[in-house]
Amino acid sequence: MDLVEIYKCLADRTRLRILNLLSQGALCVCHFQAILDEPQVKVSKHLRYLRDHGLVSAARSGNWIVYRLAAKPSKLLTANLQCLNQETSFKKDLARLRQTDTSNAVCC
User: Fold this and answer.
1) Longest Cα pair distance anywhere in the chain, in angstroms?
2) Dist CA 108 CA 88 (whole Å)
3) DSSP-assigned states of every residue in 49-83
């Protein structure tokens, strides 16, 4: 993926928040809903966009789909994700993630 395509993916705050959370490990849609306080349809739409562009992979686990960063994220994506840790709203998302039970990366 070239630079412009990566920046198109990063050009939305919700997608950035999702990628930031996935940088910590695999999650399913209900975790994103709880942490981001966003409706399932919005979260799923952004996850689909990221998946279609190769930044996120998905695997079925029982009834749930578990999302994670692509197996080999580009160096450019990794560098950009590291920058997110400097902004307060992204730090808050990570704090909410730490308070959420994601022990087996599946919902409910």
Assistant:
1) 37
2) 28
3) HHHHTTSEEEEEETTEEEEEE-SS--HHHHHHHHH
Neighbouring-strand partners of residue 60 = 65
In the chain, the number of structural domains is 1
Other C-beta atoms closer than 10 Å to the C-beta of 13 total 12
Quick: pLDDT tens for 21-65: 999 999 999 999 999 999 999 999 999 999 999 999 999 988 889
Range of the domain at 48: 3-98
Within-domain flag for 106: no
Q: Which of 9-18, 42-51, 77-86 has the lowest mean pLDDT?
A: 77-86
Beta bridge partners of 65: 60
**Helix (H, G, I), strand (E, B), or coil: what is residue 11?**
coil
Asked if residue 75 has pLDDT above 90, the reply is: no
The answer to whether position 105 is within a domain reads no
Question: What pLDDT sits at residue 104?
Answer: 56
